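Repro:
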Amino acid sequence: MVLVGAGGVPHDQLVELAQKYFSKLPTKPQTDYAAALTREQKVKPDFIGSEVRVRDDTMSTANIAIAVEGVSWSDDDYFTALVTQAIVGNWDRAMGNAPYLGSKLSAFIHEFQLANSYMSFSTSYSDTG
C-alpha cells in the first residue's frame, strides 16, 4: 500500500491520519487469505461475449471492435496465435504505401474503401488471452 499526500498537507497531519485509519490493517497476509487468493487465481476466468449496437446516421464513420478469447502464453497454440495476428496485421489508409501492401485483406479494403484503418493485437496472460 502507498499513501500519498498531494498539495499543502503537512507531513505530521498525514502521519496522524495514516495512523488513525490504517494502523489496524494487517502488515502480513493472513495465511488463510493468501491460500484462498492463490486458489482463486488458478481458476480460469470465463470469457463472456457481448454485442452493443448504436446507430447514428449523423456520424460519417464507425468504430468497430471484434474480440475473441485468445490463448494463454503457456498454451500450445500461443505461437500460432501470434502468427495469425501477424497475418491479419495492421493497415492505415494514411500510409503512403497503403494500396501496395502485400496483404489481400488490405488491398481489398483499400480498393473498395471499406475502412480508414484496422489493426489486430493479442494480449496473453498466464490463464487466457
